[in-house]
Amino acid sequence: MAKEKSEAKLLQEKLMTKKKNAGLLLEEKEIKKCDKFCEAYKKFLDCAKTEREAVAESIKLAEERGFVEYRADMPLKTGDKIYYNNRCKSVIFAIIGSEPIENGVHVAAAHIDSPRLDLKQCPLYEDNELALFKTHYYGGIKKYHWVAIPLALHGVIIKEDGSSVTVNIGEDENDPVFFISDLLPHLAQEQMKRNLSDAIKGEELNVIIGSRPFKDDDISEKVKLNIMSLLNEKYGIIEDDFISAELELVPAYKAKDIGFDRSMIGAYGHDDRVCAYTAFKALLDCEKVNKTALVVLADKEETGSDGNTGLRSAYLKYFISDIAKSLGAKGRLVISNSQCLSADVNAAFDPTFPDVLEKRNAAFFNYGVVVTKFTGSRGKSGTSDASAEFVGRIRNMLDKNNVIWQTGELGKVDMGGGGTVAAYLANLNFDVIDVGVPVLSMHAPFEVVSKIDVFMTYRAFNVFFSE
Ligand code: MN
Ligand code: MN
């Protein structure tokens, strides 16, 4: 006869939290499903290392599923699948729902820019017979991470005649890569006395791009000329064309499984392509929706969401207003009745650096998608802070659909913090909450996520759109 449970045990089961490692909750075949989902995600990461590439790749995948480019005043009906390409750097995908649009839309908003090094507008120079590029870092990086690693160059150059050239060097096995030098330890006595924050300074992030001179005795800067001559041959550009270019240096390596158990993925740019991909894929996998469903993949989050491709811009509001008008509703009313998942990553608990997080409220690997009620720093400064009602609604939605989830916060109260696009969406009068994947080494050139958490985040978006 089975031993009867004590009163305390029964009460514990009834009253105390049941959160557990998803590795214990899921059956083997469900874990395999998570792993399989992540194979396609890794492919997406490898071909979408910049915001422009993420836009191009997601539009390609969406068109394969029947999405068409939206034009203003286009007639719309239930089931239509449309996208709006904002300057090739941000994009909105939508499926028109069967419910009247004035009941509100369901939005997932993620960002597709990641910290990196941008080339300055006059980048090319020669110094002591080496050719180099000057850079200006983009987003919050630890500068010392970016030296002595292989870098690839991605972007676009607009030539004098207005034509454009797409650049992608360093991703193919046979491509060359680029590199920023660091001092050898033997001669780094002085450098080692610097603070970690300026161990490498912004103006020391100079990329080595060539070393052979152009064969000619007459001119100076022969190495620079040789590089310019190669670039002119390959892309038809002249030095001044860099002025109208957006060229970005990103790590040259591909996404890889991490660990003997292959339970994690290491890659550049999980923040925030992991939420961009999961939200976008969740929308693609919806055949029909009741509430009109939108996925916004935004640019410029890492620099504060300013600019016309960032989420402080009016493009999302305009898009919703335009489709509302086509469907005979007022955009303002649609937005006020709408709900939004601000899809962004959160910090995962790191046993090597436990002191920055408060364990009871931190997110852990394999505990599922993180729901973050508020972001901000020191006294919730800059937060949008989802209402208890909205948290309750999302919690109920996830539980009802067996999505494994956890709560999280961005560090101990006085430790620092950070924000997401949630606040800008809340300013438009959406109900918003942050939902995403916990990440280790966030903003490093190689970040790590758990495959189970990635899949649970996909499921969270999927149930949200399927409601
Ligand atoms: Mn982010
Ligand atoms: Mn970030």
What best-fitting shape do the alpha-carbon axes yield? globular
Q: How far apart are the termini? A: 44 Å
Q: What composes the largest sheet?
A: 9 strands, mixed
State the total count of DSSP E strands: 23
- What share of the residues lie within helices? 25-40%
**Structure annotation, total helices:** 11
Report the β-strand fraction as a percent range.
15-25%
Any idea what the radius of gyration is? 24 Å
Low-confidence stretches: none
What's the rounded overall pLDDT mean? 96
Bound molecules: manganese (II) ion
Largest sheet, order of strands side by side?
1-2-3-14-4-15-21-17-19
Structural class: alpha/beta
List keywords for this structure.
467 residues; alpha/beta; 9-stranded mixed β-sheet; 7-stranded antiparallel β-sheet; 11 helices; binds manganese (II) ion
Polypeptide structure, described:
This protein is 28% helix and 24% strand. The protein has 467 residues and is of the alpha/beta class. Strand 12 (256-258) and strand 13 (264-267) form a beta hairpin. Helix 3 crosses helix 11 (451-466) and helix 6 crosses helix 11. The mean pLDDT is 96. Bound molecules: manganese (II) ion (2 copies). One manganese (II) ion (MN) binds at residues 111, 271-272, 301, 344-345.
